[in-house]
């Protein structure tokens, strides 16, 4: 029966969701093709997201360490320190090329066919790619997301004055004054990059606090730290319009609740107010597939849509728009299509903001955990962690939230230089259903930052040692 189709599985989109699904499907013996319209594989994440942003974050961190005297403090004496922005951008491009090329290699190795072009549904088992009909028994929509536009603030990445994240990753000079619209993950990561390289950065955020969705105490700590680093934060403020003249932008601002308008000048404006699912041009209406109120495609826990044989994963479906969430869904959907049992535990998906310090969390915020039942909370400051003290990176804390009755860990929040690495242990513990006592009695190497997680777990029962 399956042989009547060109492929067993056709995946639309080769981002972290789609390319991983394609590789796993091929590993499971299914004849697999993946349609991708970009010139390179890897989707948003590898081309214009996770990877290039982390390259710039790393490079700008090294520059700030050298320029700001952090190295001198450790006896590393330098002559004059200069920024070579073209070299930093070239190194970023090299990392992107190596990684996107790596996916192409993996496709060949696993015998996944890359169909270059844009896919459009013409039936539940048929898509059109560049005028050619391609059929498959199962089709996975993994088309990802793109930048949400802001009315009255027109992005022109080529012009370099009003940019979105893609333009903000490719600036050819350091702006004198960058205004970031939206104090979420992209705004704070890219704002940090350009601040470290010399820009004055102002973040305009509609809500009364940065980083919506994160633990309240973490959000407050983040605001304190970013202010200390020299970022200007304009909270509870909205941008109502922008004009560009002679390479400069003038923004009109208003209090979020309404009120008197003011203006703000900038030579670069980064629009980072969120992302929305990519469904335009897919013609899902031809197969009777509908979007939910947020413009996403709903699925069941096996990633089946309401149309038989059509599945969806990644940023195009509900849940956090994160690469590792998309990847895990990619593995699960392929296994489900192959008749196995693919599961993603959506209650344990870590998220990390790669600023300095890093900000990470997994599970419930303290606010949500309290609303769900009785809890106990243990906290430990990085200031009391010996490795952080030695490295002079003592900003932040670890917070462990546990169910008061069972002691089972329901959430962990970390602000620390290596929070992104530390959160993996918390995620593993939660996946295994650990109690705070399990973490507290696990031997942690000394001196390391993760000892702070152990001590925060000990603090849940009131017994940390070093504070
Ligand atoms: P995408 O990666 O968006 O891939 C979808 C692909 O489908 C695209 O390549 C697109 O061209 C293709 N496509 C769409 N429609 C069609 C069609 N009709 N035909 C053919 N091809 C099509 N997440 C993290 O976890 N960590 C990070 O550090 C991180 N940093 C980020 C930094 C930035 C600046 C941005 C913008 C995002 C970042 N993200 C990060 C989010 C992450 O990139 C996304 O969550 C992830 O890429 C989603 O994967 P996906 O496979 O669902 O979609
Ligand atoms: P976001 O949802 O993280 O933040 C957007 C911010 O803009 C919010 O704080 C929101 O309140 C604010 N906002 C919305 N409208 C506004 C307006 N008109 N004026 C002022 N502020 C306004 O979205 P962001 O930063 O664009 O990132 C998009 C997605 O990409 C996120 O969902 C994130 O998961 C993902 N991402 C993940 C990264 C990571 O894992 N490290 C890095 C970068 C992106």
UniProtKB/TrEMBL annotation:
An MF annotation (GO) of this entry: dihydrolipoyl dehydrogenase (NADH) activity
Keywords noted in UniProt: Disulfide bond, FAD, Flavoprotein, NAD, Oxidoreductase, Redox-active center
EC number from the UniProt entry: 1.8.1.4
Cofactor(s) in the UniProt record: FAD
Domain Pyridine nucleotide-disulphide oxidoreductase dimerisation, chain residue ranges per copy: 349-457
Keyword Nucleotide-binding belongs to the record: no
Gene3D superfamilies in alphabetical order: 3.30.390.30, FAD/NAD(P)-binding domain
Note on cofactor: Binds 1 FAD per subunit.
Pfam families the UniProt entry points to: Pyr_redox_2, Pyr_redox_dim
Catalytic activity, as annotated: N(6)-[(R)-dihydrolipoyl]-L-lysyl-[protein] + NAD(+) = N(6)-[(R)-lipoyl]-L-lysyl-[protein] + NADH + H(+)
Domain FAD/NAD(P)-binding: 7-330
Transmembrane domains' residue ranges: none
Additional detail: The active site is a redox-active disulfide bond.
Membership in a protein family: Belongs to the class-I pyridine nucleotide-disulfide oxidoreductase family.
Name assigned to this protein: Dihydrolipoyl dehydrogenase
């Amino acid at each position: 029966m399956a042989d009547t189709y060109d492929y067993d599985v056709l995946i639309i989109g080769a981002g972290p969701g789609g390319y991983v699904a394609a590789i796993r499907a091929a590993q499971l013996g299914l004849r697999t093709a993946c349609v991708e319209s970009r010139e390179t594989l890897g989707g948003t994440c590898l081309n214009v997201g996770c990877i290039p942003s982390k390259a710039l974050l790393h490079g700008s961190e090294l520059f700030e360490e050298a320029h700001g005297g952090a190295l001198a403090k450790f006896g590393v004496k330098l002559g004059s320190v200069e920024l070579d922005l073209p070299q930093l951008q070239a190194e970023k491009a090299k990392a992107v090329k190596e990684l996107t090329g790596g996916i192409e290699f993996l496709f060949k190795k696993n015998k996944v066919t890359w169909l270059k072009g844009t896919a459009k549904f013409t039936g539940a088992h048929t898509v059109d790619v560049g005028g050619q009909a391609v059929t498959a028994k199962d089709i996975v929509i993994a088309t990802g997301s793109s930048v949400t536009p802001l009315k009255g603030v027109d992005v022109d990445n080529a012009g370099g004055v009003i940019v979105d994240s893609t333009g903000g990753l490719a600036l050819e000079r350091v702006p004198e004054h960058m205004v970031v619209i939206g104090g979420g993950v992209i705004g704070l990561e890219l704002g940090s990059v350009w601040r470290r390289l010399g820009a004055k950065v102002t973040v305009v955020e509609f809500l009364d606090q940065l980083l919506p969705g994160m633990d309240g105490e973490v959000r407050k700590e983040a605001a304190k730290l970013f202010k200390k680093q020299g970022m200007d934060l304009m909270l509870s403020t909205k941008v109502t319009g922008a004009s560009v003249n002679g390479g400069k932008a003038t923004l009109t601002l208003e209090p979020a609740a309404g009120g008197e308008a003011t203006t703000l000048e900038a030579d670069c404006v980064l629009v980072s107010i969120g992302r929305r699912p990519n469904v335009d041009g897919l013609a899902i209406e031809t197969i009777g597939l509908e979007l939910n109120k947020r413009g996403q495609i709903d699925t069941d826990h096996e990633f089946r849509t309401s149309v038989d044989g059509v599945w969806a994963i990644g940023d195009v479906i509900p849940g956090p728009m994160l690469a590792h969430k998309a990847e895990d869904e990619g593995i699960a959907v392929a296994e489900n299509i192959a008749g196995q049992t693919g599961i993603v535990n959506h209650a344990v998906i870590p998220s990390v903001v790669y600023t300095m310090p890093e900000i990470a969390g997994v599970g419930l915020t303290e606010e949500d955990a309290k609303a769900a039942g009785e809890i106990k909370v243990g906290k430990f400051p990085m200031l009391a962690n010996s490795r952080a003290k030695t490295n002079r990176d003592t900003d932040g804390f670890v917070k462990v939230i546990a169910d008061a009755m069972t002691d089972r860990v329901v959430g962990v929040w970390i602000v620390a230089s290596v929070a992104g690495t530390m959160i993996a242990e918390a995620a593993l513990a939660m996946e295994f259903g650990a109690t705070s006592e399990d973490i507290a009695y696990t031997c942690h190497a000394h001196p390391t930052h993760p000892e702070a997680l152990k001590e925060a777990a000990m603090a849940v029962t009131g017994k940390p040692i070093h504070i």
